[in-house]
Amino acid sequence: MKIIGIGKNYVSDLSEMPSEKGMPVIFTKPESSILKSGETLHLPKVSNEVWYEIELAFRIGKTCKNVSREEAIDYIDGVTLANDLTAKDVLAASRESKGPWALAKGFDGATPLGEFVSMEGFQDLGNINFTLEINGEVVQTGHSSLMIYSLGEVVEVVSSFMTLEPGDVILTGTPAKGVGLVKSGDHMLAHLEGVKTLETVVA
User: Fold this and answer.
1) Range of the domain at 107
2) Are strands 129-134 and 187-192 parallel, antiparallel or unpaired?
3) Neighbour count for residue 196 (Cβ, 10 Å)
4) Which of 44, 41, 77 is nearest to 170 (CA)?
5) The predicted structure's pLDDT at residue 123
6) Which residues contact 124 (CB under 8 A, 6 or more apart)?
7) Residues 6 or more apart from 96 whose CB is under 8 A from it?
8) Residues 41-64: what's their mean pLDDT?
9) How many structural domains are present in the chain?
10) Distance (Å, rounded) from C-alpha 57 to C-alpha 135?
11) pLDDT tens, 158-200?
């Protein structure tokens, strides 16, 4: 099972949408980073600066290779929310030497992931709302229309390089504003179209 992440994929306003787009920022995360909804997050000892990033997550339902963006929805069988946790201090140190994002994004528990629900009711991929609240305060609000690279475009690019298999997960990026530090004792609650989808308590 692969987790494919997309970086820097949101604008704050449609007026900021680039007229020309190159290759999206793509990275992978290990399956061991997954933390199920309701499980306790233990912050890693390797970092003093873990940040939250709430994202729409989509699950591949059938083998997918060289698929066009128009066909992509036919290969998706579920949607949920994920928190793409990032060890910012580890990432900064890696960037100094032009290194990869793998350690900063891939520590144990770095991907709190909700239960997937059917795509029925989510046919308009450009009109999905989601939020993250911490300790009762909304800290991130997202809408899929503000994605620079649509899910279809992401599937098209990724499947041209690697075969996507049933169960693989695509994280589509976090809203342009609102990311912040995760602290011990935090209670994180994410909603997809107003429905509680992901809950994480930080030890």
Assistant:
1) 3-202
2) antiparallel
3) 12
4) 77
5) 85
6) none
7) none
8) 98
9) 1
10) 23
11) 999 999 999 999 999 999 999 999 999 999 999 999 999 999 9
